[in-house]
Write a structure and sequence with these properties.
Layout: H1 2-22, H2 25-40, H3 42-48, H4 55-62, H5 71-83, H6 90-104, E1 107-114, H7 120-134, E2 137-144, E3 152-156, E4 159-162, H8 165-177
């Protein structure tokens, strides 16, 4: 995994540079996300690794059906990946690109996992608290995990806040056993 990230990083930076210069960070993010999802499909991955696949075929296969970006620049980028046999790195490239984008746009991406679906008012409260803590805009992704019993776990990059009942019970168990 770390080798894949190391190999993907220069391509993500190059894509970010192209997108930033064109003022199309969101469009490139969408296009890279689309290409990453397509390339991660096992059937498509087998095709992408086939030696008979031409660069034009790869570009046609991985180009988003509609894009708000310079499709020629995106096609050249995908063609470069195909020529260098780096198409399997597209998921890592898309992830690293999004990290660069969020840093440039001063946005923190947070994942809120709760035992039940949270009402919009609670999500707004969580967003406001995270915005205050990080001093940045917050983009929240939600998930439900019934194993948490109650409460929520917030994962925002390097910071994980475990306010779940499962986490509290685990900490209590550890304290009682010591």
């Amino acid at each position: 995994m770390s080798q894949a990230l190391t190999l993907a990083r220069p391509y993500a930076r190059a894509a970010f540079s192209l997108a930033r210069d064109a003022g199309a960070l969101a469009g490139w993010s969408d296009a890279l996300g689309f290409a990453a999802r397509v390339s991660a499909d096992p059937q498509v991955a087998a095709v992408l690794g086939h030696p008979a696949l031409t660069t034009n075929d790869a570009v046609t296969l991985l180009a988003p059906p509609s894009a708000s970006i310079d499709t020629e620049a995106f096609a050249r980028f995908i063609g470069l990946l195909a020529d260098n046999r780096r198409l399997p790195l597209l998921p890592e490239i898309a992830g690293l690109f999004d990290e660069l984008r969020f840093e440039a746009e001063r946005v923190v991406k947070a994942r809120v996992t709760s035992a039940t679906a949270l009402p919009a008012s609670e999500l707004d409260t969580i967003k406001a608290a995270l915005r205050k803590r990080f001093g940045r805009e917050v983009e929240v992704e939600t998930a439900v995990d019934e194993n948490l019993i109650g409460g929520a776990v917030i994962d925002a990059g390097d910071v994980v806040i475990d306010g779940s009942l499962r986490g509290k019970l685990g900490r209590l168990q550890a304290a009682l056993s010591n």
